[in-house]
């Protein structure tokens, strides 16, 4: 019985050791190993878990802000109209639009500007008789805007980005985002006033 087993094992081994069969087995092993590693690391790779010290420095030589992709809100009235309508009250909408802190502190200022412009409740800013009141109200609950105001280049990036977009829309009729067209001028003015970059026009009223 033992001889039969040994003989069968030997035949299988000889078959495996044939160059073509061996190459196929090795290739399959590599594929399986790579798949397992990918599955194990996919959930681990996120803004929260990436070591910032291992990321290439930005143009200023500072690793602090490195993620140059704007945050995507999980629920908005433009992409999920029915689900958004089911949210009861302003507080529920604010909770859904909250950007995780670990994401905010990783975004470049440029990406952060777009994140603020995409904020689903930003239009509340222009619903007031005085834009300053609307700006301060949105500021009280929009943590992306709060973070933007801590950046030294906030005014510059906001002005540069919105100026280019609005000029292109007016010149060529390109419909980037009509919400931006309505809110961007007010936002950039209020941000620059808040940062002391331009005079406060409401003081004279």
What would you say this structure looks like, in words?
This protein has 205 residues and is mostly helical. It has helices spanning 2-16, 19-42, 81-85, 89-96, 101-104, 109-117, 131-141, 143-148, 154-172, 178-194. Mean pLDDT is 74; it is low at 2-6 and 12-62.
Tell me the number of helical segments per DSSP (H or I, 4 or more residues long). Answer: 10
Helix content: 55-70%
Alpha carbon gyration radius = 27 Å
State the total count of DSSP E strands: 0
Poorly predicted ranges: 2-6, 12-62
- The best one-word shape is globular
Q: Roughly how many Å apart are the termini?
A: 104 Å
Q: Give, in order, the helices and strands.
A: HHHHHHHHHH
Question: Which percent band covers the strand fraction?
Answer: under 5%
| Class based on secondary structure composition and strand pairing | mainly alpha
| Oligomerization category of the chains in this entry | single chain
Largest sheet: none
Task: Give the secondary structure arrangement, pairings included.
Elements: H1 2-16, H2 19-42, H3 81-85, H4 89-96, H5 101-104, H6 109-117, H7 131-141, H8 143-148, H9 154-172, H10 178-194
Brief characterization of the structure:
By secondary structure, the chain is mainly alpha-helical. About 60% of the residues lie in helices and about 0% in strands. The protein starts with a helix and ends in an 11-residue tail after the last helix.
Question: How would you describe this structure in keywords?
Answer:
globular; disordered N terminus; 10 helices; 2 domains; 205 residues; mainly alpha
């Amino acid at each position: 019985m033992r001889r039969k087993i040994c003989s069968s094992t030997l035949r299988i081994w000889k078959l495996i050791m044939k160059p073509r069969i061996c190459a196929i087995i090795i290739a399959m092993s590599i594929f399986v190993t790579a798949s397992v590693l990918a599955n194990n690391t996919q959930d681990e790779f996120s803004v929260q878990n990436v070591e910032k010290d291992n990321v290439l420095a930005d143009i200023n030589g500072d690793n602090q802000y490195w993620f140059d992709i704007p945050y995507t809100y999980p629920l908005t009235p433009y992409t999920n109209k029915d689900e958004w309508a089911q949210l009861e009250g302003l507080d529920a909408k604010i909770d859904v639009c909250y950007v995780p802190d670990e994401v905010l502190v990783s975004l470049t200022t440029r990406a952060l500007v777009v994140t603020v412009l995409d904020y689903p409740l930003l239009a509340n800013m222009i619903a007031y008789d005085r834009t300053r009141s609307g700006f301060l109200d949105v500021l009280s609950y929009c943590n992306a805007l709060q973070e933007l105001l801590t950046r030294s280049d906030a005014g510059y990036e906001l002005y540069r980005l919105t100026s280019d977009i609005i000029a292109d829309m007016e010149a060529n009729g390109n419909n980037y985002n009509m919400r931006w067209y309505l809110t961007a001028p007010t936002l950039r003015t209020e941000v620059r006033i808040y940062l002391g970059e331009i005079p406060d026009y409401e003081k004279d009223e």
